[in-house]
Specification:
Chain lengths: 121, 611
């Protein structure tokens, strides 16, 4: 159900990203899409836009990776899918086997943009 | 005899042509043999997964006899194409045919098939053991009990995701590199810090208790509120104890477990007549409880989907599920479901203080609100009544006190409630407080009336077992348990004994309700099993113990004090409760994990014990 909702929500984004081979500019996730995604995947337990919870805030992530290159985006995308540890401390991030590559990329682009916005305040 | 046989021969082809579903069930027989010595493997678990879309259960499991033989019939199938077979036996792995494939040849009789499966003894049983195996060798004591109690309430300790996460903690490589001693010291600190973060994470995850769209559910709660330990199932101290215990004792890897490091702890009770049928439920449901109840002479299983505000009805013959919404304007979170003597179903609900009666024939609801006065409006779990359990009799049917009142526990508040369904009158009564525990932390859990229906017993997961006088509402008896014991679901037997599952210590307690005394405790075969519930089986004179972590059901013979083990066919087989169908003697249950992301099976269970 959640999954179906997500797919419907992200459908335009998926299409844009799936289009090979050049990474055409993906359709941006709206704030509402992102909120739903964070809720459905449980991201909000550890992350928030400004607030420090268990992991870094989106603002901190955006500040750390300004002008992200495709390599950076890929690196971060892998973290969303498989989890990670060591970049921000000693608590590992959990993996998200339910998230598709396209979803991970879309949400990352939202984080980098929205986080950058928040960090300017 | 000869005549009726003849009639059958004539009739069967005619009937089967007219009603394909009435044709004889496809039957698979076979033998399970060890390749090491060619010996038969007895009590091996043989699971058939039916092809997608087939009617009936999603999987059928039987067990081999002493000579390794098994026989399995699939009423909805003509043959086994598209079905998958797996054979499991602790200490072995399946080598031929590969697990999940089926290599059967057709026998002479139509619809009959035969197969042979070969197993091989293994040294590493990591993939086969239940979760309880992983902390078996960690030091026993209060800290361990508290950890089991706190961390087995929503998922197994440790379920697959937790093992994966623990390996991630060990894989962090940011510490000192060349100095081994320094690195070990650093890793200790890193572990503690990571497990403390896990506990924070779990405080936030508490809000999965409530339905998806609940005003006090996960979507709406803010971070600061989630971290308020007073609103959790474990208090701040217990959270710290669990984090420290896991940091010290959780295995550094769970990839390997030597053969001799785990066994069931008691003989298996399964026979060649034991059959476990598993029915698929919606993947996004959370069905915590399931009971049998016939409707129009047809047997059905009924469950509660706390996540989606539904009651589910499973037709075991077709496997068809019918989802019935609760007739309420807001979220309800149906939790405990109990039949009564009139063929109605009673349902307690964790959200919006609802308690209801469902008429299974008309699907009409009667609802009552059981909200004690004075609860804060907006204090999340701390402001919720959480109508949890209601008193049942020896058969698991709804029971009322001598004045016709139904008794319930209100888990958000450490209170008992009563409802007179005739007048709609409700009353609320404070249970004994437990030092260091908020009302939610205390977690008043289940309730049972004594045989004379004049005394109402309750359990507090982080406290005692107590009784209240049903007339004066005064607390009469208190049976304290050490911290971490975790008295959970209770049941009354035919001799007015109260049986209690001790969730944290892996025991069951027997309390004489006449005397108000604890008369015995029995250690389970696996002390980390996290027993959730006990069910008295009058016909068998046995006590069933449903476990969350042992992926098994235990049967206690109270006369001898001996247990038998009935292993369940699936990882993630987290049981809460088991109901006994008084008519058929079958057991009914459900896998009741509270994990939302598909990390656990969603299935209803119907078991032929096989005795």
């Amino acid at each position: 159900m959640t999954r179906r909702l997500l797919t419907t929500l992200l459908f335009p984004t998926l299409l844009a990203i799936a289009a090979p081979p050049a990474l055409s500019r993906p359709v941006a996730m709206t704030d509402a899409d992102a909120t739903r995604f964070f809720h459905a995947q449980g991201c909000k337990t550890c992350h928030a836009r400004d607030e420090l919870r268990i992991g870094p805030s989106y603002a901190m992530i955006a500040t750390r990776y300004p002008n992200a290159t495709p390599e950076t985006v890929e690196r971060l995308r892998l973290k969303v899918l498989y989890g990670g540890a060591g970049a921000w401390g000693t608590t590992p991030m959990i993996s998200h086997p339910d998230v598709s590559v396209a979803e991970a990329e879309a949400v990352l682009r939202w984080i980098l943009a929205a986080g950058a916005e928040a960090s300017k305040k | 005899m000869a005549l009726s046989y003849l009639r059958l021969i004539v009739l069967v082809p005619i009937i089967s042509a007219a009603y394909p579903s009435l044709t004889r069930a496809a039957e698979l027989s076979g033998r399970v043999v060890a390749i090491d010595d060619g010996d038969a493997v007895s009590q091996a678990m043989v699971s058939l997964t039916l092809p997608k879309g087939a009617a009936g259960p999603a999987a059928i499991t039987v067990f081999t006899a002493a000579d390794g033989a098994f026989r399995l019939s699939a009423p909805s199938l003509k043959n086994f194409s598209g079905a998958a077979l797996s054979v499991r036996k602790l200490g072995f792995r399946q080598v031929r045919p590969a697990a999940g494939t089926l290599d059967a040849k057709s026998a002479k009789t139509a619809g009959r098939f035969e197969t042979r499966v070969y197993l091989q003894a293994v040294a590493n049983i990591a993939d086969d053991v239940p979760p309880s195996a992983w902390l078996a060798d960690a030091p026993a004591g209060e800290a361990k009990n508290i950890t089991v109690l706190s961390c087995s309430q929503c998922h197994q300790l440790p379920f697959a995701r937790m093992r994966e996460y623990a390996e991630k903690i060990e894989a962090v490589s940011a510490g000192p590199q060349r100095d081994r001693k320094a690195r070990e010291e650093w890793r200790k600190v890193a572990r503690h810090s990571a497990w403390r973060d896990v506990v924070k994470d779990m405080r936030a995850k508490h809000y999965v208790f409530f339905p998806l769209e609940s005003a006090i559910g996960r979507a709406n709660v803010d971070w600061a509120t989630t971290q308020n330990a007073d609103y959790n199932l474990f208090n701040a101290r217990h959270g710290d104890i669990a984090a420290d215990y896991l940091a010290q004792h959780f295995p550094r890897t769970t990839a390997v477990l030597p053969r001799d490091d785990y066994d069931y702890g008691a003989p298996l009770g399964v026979t060649e007549r034991t059959v476990i049928r598993e029915f698929a439920l919606a993947p996004d449901s959370v069905v915590r409880e399931m009971v049998p109840l016939s409707l129009g002479g047809k047997p059905y299983l009924w469950g509660t989907d706390v996540r989606r505000n539904l009651v589910v009805r499973i037709d075991p013959a077709s496997g068809h599920t019918r989802w019935i919404p609760v007739d309420f304007k807001d979220t309800t979170g149906p939790h405990t479901i109990v039949p009564d003597d009139d063929g109605k179903l009673w349902v307690s609900m964790v959200d919006n203080a609802q308690f209801g009666r469902l008429d299974p024939a008309t699907e009409k609801w009667t609802l009552w609100t059981l909200r004690p006065p004075g609860l804060p409006d907006s204090e999340w779990i701390g402001g919720a009544a959480i109508v949890h359990d209601m008193a049942v009799d020896t058969r698991g049917h709804l029971e009322r006190d001598t004045a016709g009142r139904i008794w319930v526990t209100l888990s958000g508040t450490n209170k008992m409630g009563t409802l007179d369904p005739k007048t709609g009158d409700v009353t609320f009564h404070e249970a004994n407080p437990i030092e260091g525990m908020s009302p939610t932390n205390t977690l008043i859990y289940s309730t049972i009336l004594s045989r004379d229906r004049k005394h109402v017993w309750y359990s507090q997961l982080n406290g005692s077992v107590g009784s209240m006088n049903a007339e004066s509402k005064q607390v009469e008896k208190l049976i304290p348990f050490p911290e971490g014991t975790g008295p959970r679901r209770m049941w009354r037997d035919d001799a007015n004994n109260l049986w209690v599952a001790l969730n944290g210590t892996g025991q069951v307690a027997k309390i004489d309700m006449d005397k108000g005394e604890l008369v015995a405790t029995y250690d389970l075969p696996d002390r980390l099993a996290a027993p959730y519930a006990v069910t008295w089986d009058s016909a068998r004179k046995a006590l069933w113990v449903a476990t969350s972590n042992a992926e098994a059901l235990y049967r206690l013979d109270p006369e001898s004090g001996r247990f038998k083990v009935y292993p369940l066919p699936r990882h993630g087989a987290y049981l809460r409760m088991i109901a006994v169908d008084a008519k058929t003697g079958q057991l009914v249950g459900t896998y009741a994990n509270y994990v939302p992301t598909g990390a656990a099976p969603r299935m209803g269970l119907l078991i032929d014990v096989g005795d």
